User: Fold Neutral ceramidase from Oceanodroma tethys.
Amino acid sequence: MCRKRSKCSFSRLEVVLIVCLVLMIMVTVVLLLLHFLAKESNSKLRYFSPTTAPCSKQTKHIEIFSHSVISASNSTKVTPNYLLGVGRADCTGPVAEIPLMGYANPDQVGGGILIRLYSRAFIVADLDDSRRVVFVSADIGMVSQRVRLEVLKKLKSKYGELYRQDNVILSGTHTHSGPGGYFQYTLFWFTSKGLIRPSLNAIVNGIVKSIDIAHQNMKRGRLFINRGTVENSQINRSPFSYLKNPASERSRYSSNTDKEMVMLKMVDEDGHELGLISWFAVHPVSMNNTNHLVNSDNVGYASYLFEQEKNKGMLPGEGSFVAAFASSNLGDVSPNTKGPFCVNTGESCNNPQSTCPVGGATMCMAMGPGNDMFDSTRIIGQNIYLKARELYEKASQEVTGPLSSAHQWVNMSDVSVELNATHTVKTCKPALGHSFAAGTIDGVGAFNFTQGSVEGDPFWDKIRDQLLGEPSNETKACHKPKPILFSTGEMTWPHPWHPDIVDVQIAAIGSLAIVAVPGEFTTMSGRRLREAVKREFDFHGTPRMDVVIAGLCNVYTHYITTYEEYQVQRYEAASTIYGPHTLSAYIQLYRGLARAIATDTIQDLPRGPEPPVFNIGNMTLVPPLTPDRVPASKTFGDVLQEVRQQYRAREVIEVTFVGANPRNSAENTTEHNFLTVERYTSTSYSWHVVQNDASWDTRFYWTKGLLGRSNVTIEWHIPHGTEPGIYRIRYFGHYKKKLPNNHIAFIPFEGASSAFEITAL
Assistant:
C-alpha cells in the first residue's frame, strides 16, 4: 500500500496508536527509575537512622534528612552543634523632646511613639562552653563608643571575663527615628543637644538586659544559613559615585546595590524555633526627617512581622522567638525606590549634585513606594520580612565548626597602608567635607551646600576659621580632593569631636564570619572588604567561609567609600572621615584579623590603644522637666475629644486626653506602655489588651502646650480582620508634681475612652 503512494504516510488512527505506545513506554521507564531510587534512598536513610522506624515515622525522617528542616512535632532529638541563647529587651527611652538621631536635623525632636525599640541578643557557645560569641542588633541609629564601653563594663561586673570586647559585637539597625544623645564625642552633641543620660541609660540597660535573657536561656541547638535576593526594596542614592569604580569591577555585579540577604536560623535540639538574624543592606529611612514618632523604621517593621507570626497570641515585645534584621553595607543604599524628585516641581533631580533648577539641593528628595512615609515603611519592611521568611523556611545549609573572635583597637587617624611593594599611604586625622552639610536625597541638608563639592566655599570657610579655626595644611593635603568644612580631628574642646581609637572585630561561628564594621560601608566598599576577608581565610586553609558585614558596630565613624568614590565627594565621600585611603586601611586590618583566626594566632594580635572615657555628666540643652498642669475643671487623663460609638475595620479611631510629659514616665519607669487597646469579653465580664504602643497600628502623639499643659492624642488604625466587638482605648502616664520642701514626685495616672463598637464590613 505504501508503494502505491508517492510518499509513505500513516493514517490518523495509526499516529494516535504510535503516540500512545511511546507514552506508555516513557511512563514505565519513569516508574522503574523511581522504584530503584526509592530503594536506594531508604537504604541510605537506614544508615543515618539509629533504629528501623515504622513506615509512618520513616516519612518524617526522610523529610528531615532531605531538607535539613527540624520539625518540632518530631520527638527524635538531633545532634546539636552549639549552645544557643536569644533575648529581647526594650531600649526605647524618652519619646518626647529628645532629638531623633540620624538626619542631623535639630528640629526633628521626639513627639510620641509609633512602635517600640528593642535590643535583640544572640549568644552562641561551644558545647563544652569553652568559647562564646555574642551578637546584638539594637534598634538605634548606631552604636556609639560610649554605649559599648558602658555595656562592657556592666557585663564585666556581672559575668567577669565571660563577655569581653573581643567576643561581643554590638550593631545598630540605623533607624533614623530613635532618641539621640548617647555620644561622648562633641560633634554629635550639636544635633542631639548634648549627652542625655536617660537616653544613654535606656540603650545600655536594654542591651545588657537582652544579653542577660539570652544568657539565662541557653539551649543545645543547631544553626542553619541561607541567602537570597530581595527585589524592589532599594536603590543606590549615589549612582554617579558608584560609576567611578572600575568598569571591570562593576561588570562582575548585576546591580549597583547588594540585593542579597543572608539569614541565620536558630533551633534547639528538639526542633523548637529560637530566632533568626538577617543581614541586608538598606537604609532605614523610609520614615523621613519630618517624622516625630519614635520607631524602628522598615527593618524594625520586618522584625515586628516575624515575631508576631512566631509568637502567636502575644503582644509585640513578648514571646520567646527573636528576629533581628541587622544592618550591613548600606552606606549608599536607599529604600526610597521612586528615586529623587524636586518636591516643588515634580521633575527628576537625579544628577551628580542632586539639585533642582528652582530651590537647589534642598528641594531634591527621594520618595518611597508608598502613599506616605508610613505606607513606604510598611511596604519595604514587608518585602524584607517575606524574603526572610522564605529563606527561613528553606534553610538547609548547616553551620558547624569552632568559634573564634578577634578584636583590636586601632588609631585610625594614623594607619600606614601598603598598597603594593613600592607604595605606602596613610590615613588622616578626622575631617568632614563641605558635601557633608548637603545631606542626601533621603534627608537634605541646609543653606546652599551641594553634593559633589570638590572646592570649598569662601563664605563658609571664613566663618569656620573665625569660630573653630582653620584646618592645618597637613590635614588639607591628606584629605584631598575633599574641601574640609570641619577639621574635627584638630578640634578638642570641650572634648575631642571625633574618635581616633576605633574597634575592628571579626567573630567566626563555624563557617560564618561576621565582620563588625564601625560605620557605613558603601556597596562597593563592602564587596571589596568581604572578598578580601574571604580570600584571606581561603589562603590560610579555611575555605568556603560565608562572610557577612555587620554595619554600625561598636563605635560610629560615619562612612567608608572606595578610593574612586571618594574623588567625587558626594555626601558619603565627604563623610569618610579618615581620608581617601580609609577603605584600604580597614581591608588591611580585617585581613589581619581573618589571618589570626585562620592560623589560630589570635593571642599574638596587639591589643591596641584603649579608647578614652570622658567624664561627662548629664550635659544637655534639652529643657528640664517642669511640673505638669491641667486646664480648669480637668484632671490628668480626662478625655478632651471622645471616640464615636461605632467604627469599621480600616477606619481610624482618634481620642485626645489631658496629658503630661512622656519623659516623666521614661525617666521613672522601665518599659512603660503609654496606651492599650482593649476588647471586652462578655463571657468573663472583663477587658483584655489586644494592642499596645509597640503595635504597628497604634500611634501616640504628644503635643506640648503653654504653662506646663499638654495633650495626648492616640490613634488606632483598625487593621483588616479585626474581630467585631466592644473596645476601648486607655492612656497611661505620669505627671510631675512639686511637693513642699522642694521635693518632686512623679505620680501615675490613666484615662480611658468611652466604649465603642467595631462592626463587620
Remarks:
- Residues 1-8, 27-75 have pLDDT under 50 and may be disordered.
- The CA atoms of residues 106 and 191 lie 5 Å apart.
- DSSP finds 16 helices and 38 strands in the chain.
